[in-house]
Fold each of these.
Amino acid sequence: MDQTPPSNAYGRYCVPAGLATRPAVRAVLAGLIYEPQTIAFMRAHAAGGDVIHAGTFFGDFLPGVAAALAPGARLWAFEPNPGSYACAVETLRLNALENVTLTNVGLSNVEETLHFRTHDAEGAPLGGLSHVTEAPGPGVTAVQAAMLDFAIPRDRQVSILQLDVEGHEKRALKGAYHLIHRCRPILILENHGNESWIQRTFRGLGYRVCGRLHGNFVYATEDLDL
């Protein structure tokens, strides 16, 4: 008999095996929403445009954000971990989401192959803590990296760019240099509070920290209510 997938107020989810103690998985298994303030903010500020969501994990953000997009708008989701990506694909199916483009790549400032750690030294899956590393080895797999400047069609207007890429934010942002200049989206960056780097890299756009949502820093070119 098939097991009923866990759910919360936004939808149903395929959760990865062996990761029940991870915060996002634990929340969904309990029928709760992980990072509810972040999802609510993204839903409220999509403003008719597309949303980019990188570090999709098993897709816990997908139903809530996708449901709030305007007609014709799209959620562009990126997840490099093959196991997490497979769960996110199933989450899309469980919720019949048709306005989401999910891609099994990491983000960087060049199109390259990355060494990506998916398991720890004991072989346990890292799930959402998977990250880019310097060298191959046990628990490390090769994944493709894409640049947002090429991954997102140039005729799309992006309202929000949200990154949860475990320390790879600077390279991912550099790969979105032209997109950010064209669209000036709200930036939601996990644990990346280097405002001076953002201002130097995207000089003249006026980005500044507007506040925090859970562990995320929110940058915008105009004042926002968080």
Note: The radius of gyration is 17 Å.
Amino acid sequence: MKLLKDISDISSRHEMLSKLRSELTDVSRELNITKNILDRTENVKDFDLIIKKISDRVLLSSKITQVRERLVSLNREISVLKDKVSYYEKVNLVQDIVISIDKKLEVLNKLEGAKKEYSATCGSLNDGLAFMEKNKKEIQENLNLYIDILRKNGVCPLCKSSIGDEKLEDIIRHYEEVH
């Protein structure tokens, strides 16, 4: 019985060892497969690094593209703004010209008013001069008439003294000095 038991133990052990051997063979085969895979994928870490670099560059390229598009957009906006600024500078120039013209029109209106006043004054002055000339002629005519009357009468109407040519000349000279 002991022998049977020993045989049974050995047989069980043999089965277990056989099983273990089979498992060891499987593990060994798996190990070889894994080793082959590892050998073939030895550069995978480098690939990971390369893939990360490529990914980083793609991301950077995407960002650069976005920045470039934004730059192009900003350049367009700057161009539009420059056109607007140029337009407004022209508007400011036109406004300055309009203000200058307004000031000149104001001066022109004042000058026209002054010209009208001057013309009116000149007209009045000419009327006055004409009036003075007319009165001067009338006075001269009346003086000539008065002298003729004095000559005919030969006497002063106020003091009744006699008036000769010399006295008449004094009266005419005195009148001319006064007027």
Note: The helical segments are 2-40, 44-153, 165-178.
Amino acid sequence: MPNMQPAVLVVDDEVHSLDAIRRTLEETFPILTASSADRAKEILDQRSVSVVLCDQRMPGLTGVEFLKQVRERWPHIVRIIISGYTDLEDVIAGINDAGIYCYIQKPWAPDHLLATIRQAVDTQGLRGDLQRLDLELRSSPSVLLQRRSEKMARVRDEFSFERIVRAPGSPVDPVCEVAARVARYDLPVLVQGESGTGKELLARAIHYASPRADQAFVVENLASIADPLIESELFGHKRGAFTGAYEDHIGLFQRADGGTVFLDEIGDTSPALQVKLLRVLQEGEVRPVGSTRTLQVDVRLIAATHRDLETAVREGRFREDLYYRLAGITLAMPPLRERPGDLPAIAARLLEQAARDLGREALTFSADALSTLVTYPWPGNIRELRNEIYRAVVLSEDHCIRSTAFSRKVQYGQVGQTVPGMNHGIPATGTLQERLDAIEAVVLKEALLRHRWNKTRAAQELGLSRVGLRQKLLRFRLEEK
């Protein structure tokens, strides 16, 4: 089935920059590209576009000038601009005239760019929903209330703890059980875990299981915002607070008033920002940049980090009082290498998503492909797994994904190196018996995972008695999942 997602138009006169943005976004959205404002307007006359992402520096029209024209002729399109630090003054000055949704500072991070475009697409969809709801409200208020209730129920279900993909008995189960109990109470939560383990997904589930579920859930990655801009983005600013601040700007905490704020990578914040975040937690108030008055806000804060904050506190890099305010409840998302039993289910969900996004029919994994995925340690966690599966879908010509479609490091089970001729992380050194034992342990583990730890079926596949299989499991310490 062809991809029906909203198209994103990228406008940049630099070919390398255009290609980099296209590669970052094309796995998730249909991408149209233009190297000039004139070509972009031709595309907008012919194609339906949800988001325009434009560089500020272009020959002829600047990005802001072009987006002003877009606002006049295609007001429904969400407008985003990319700018270097030296151009920020001009961009900020033109934000209101051009109706710019947000700006992204160079050098941009792929994850932040993708997340921003996702939010912009969602915003464009919500605008359409609001227009339809407005018509319904005029004709029948009761229909509006019913539709709103139905939509809220769907959102709660989509982001529920049950929707976090995992197998029965997963290490994620106890994390979700604690999170579900915590969700009902208005306490700050600190989610710890490596990059790509699903910390934001857990935070969303907490929000939609809480009494604040019908209010805003606002996300910000603190590591992706330049230091001079971060206070303005979080707390807002007043007109005239700095060069280019021609209008008041509402900060993230004000936009989330009544709802939940999720701050990712909080361990990367500066000491000055830590003081201001502490004030939000203690007093429930923020002070916009350039203002002499504080504003009361009612938000629940969920923070996340891949860093060891306790060590950072001991070394003086993170405020102790802020840490204890954030860590009212601490949850730890386990890395993918500690949850191999979940990997087949996660991989199947990602394969389904990749096939849908890339316009392919239903695909399946071969036994060797699934075995390869299970035995690789995944230092990049689910984000790395997703990239490998999208790659495999693109490279596979038939309906079965084989291990040869994965990158060499995944095929050979090595992190940071590949050893041709070796498979699934079998050691390249050691005595013959030690290496044979390692191979036998991998084969046993693969069979058990393939049969979801059903020992009778695994023993039948391997030509062993159940007693013989149990002895080998004890020998290789595989008796427990």
Note: Residues 415-425 have pLDDT under 50 and may be disordered.
Amino acid sequence: MKQQFLKMFVLSLVFTVSGICQTTTQKNVKSQNPNILFIAVDDLRPELNFYGANHIKSPNLDKLAGESLIFERAYCNVPVCGASRASLMTGARPTRNRFIDAHVKKDEDYPEAISLPLLLKQNGYQTISNGKIYHYGNDDAKAWDEIWQSSRRWRYAFEENFELRQKTGRGLPVEIADVHDSIYMDGKLALKVITDLQKLKQSNQPFFLTMGVAKPHLPFNAPKKYWDLYDRNEIELPESYVQPETTPKQAFHNFGELRQYEKIPKKGDLPEELAKELIHGYYACVSYIDAQIGLVLDELKRLNLDENTIVILWGDHGWNLGDHKLWCKHINFETALRTPLIIKVPGKTTGQKTDAITEYIDIYPTLAELAGLKSPNSVEGKSFVPIINGQKSDKNWAVSKFKDGVTLIKDQLFYTEWTDDAGVAYARMLFDHKTDPLEIDNLAEKPSYKNTVEALSKELREKWGEDFLK
């Protein structure tokens, strides 16, 4: 009897030790595969405190930036949402026939590419798409364990404004409603992401959890308390509120996206009062989404998931708030190309800043490397993990494209060509940010810059991608 009891005790001890070892192994495996919280913000320009601005109230983004690596010279590869997102998620450059406009689908433009979420899913990650990640919610469906989007009904709080949108296609460009944050889409999004975090806390799988924030995209709708943070009398039009004759006409557009909204004139400059109302609304929306992102980051910390979770936040492109008398994106000025990009890597980032030129196609190989994975051959970007590790970047250029316009960013020079299907340029502009950060004085046609233009034109073709003209 004693021998049998002893035998059972030993077996029990073996199973217990085995279970402890197995649990420890699982924890070790998970610690080697960090979670990723992937926050994509629509139309967010780098007009934030940690980029030198001091008028937009965004305490949660400021706090996250203080724990992150801040990229001061990050650029989207194409300044329009659908194309920018597809390019980023595949790590592939836009070409003349790939990733063209807002209505791009990754599955149609580059179906053979293994996207970032698909790579992670294939390697044991739980992948959840919340909100706007691709332009279309069902795009790249095989990459996700779950896809969730809030009803578009909640773009507006007032029923009459929603009905107006249904009738006109766009509706009013602003709405001020004294309602709870959760009435609008991004408030509902925050609650969904928080619920996901609580569920994922119980899982042994690493996760790739996304938060696709809708604002500050038009319409500029946010709860009244965020509008009340700003005094419209203190809002001014941008210093670059001009369109010099030396700049090619191809550089400008009629901001058709905004023109579709009610009470917006169909042509010409906006009345100053209306322009300031739109800027006010943009600021209010940034403060609103800041609060929603803050709720998610607080829950991440409360659950003790922050210690093993990479947090990356990016805006899909820049946005014009009257810069060059333009609104929206869809252009090759820096205001549409430069973007906010910050990444928090536990144990490595503490609010450092880098002026290394970074492209959005670099995000894919970076996150793959941090997850211990090799990027597929279709990825054209370059990992910026060395920068995270404190090393100096050896890359000093980026290429961005919108339709016929292709821009080479080289050190402080911004060179753009508008080209035909054969790659022949029919218009050019060149700005030197050392002396002209607002991009007012086009140098491309000045005789003294002829050699510079020829060298940049050649380099542009070397760097815009092997498949660019295909």
Note: Residues 362 and 381 are 4 Å apart (CA to CA).
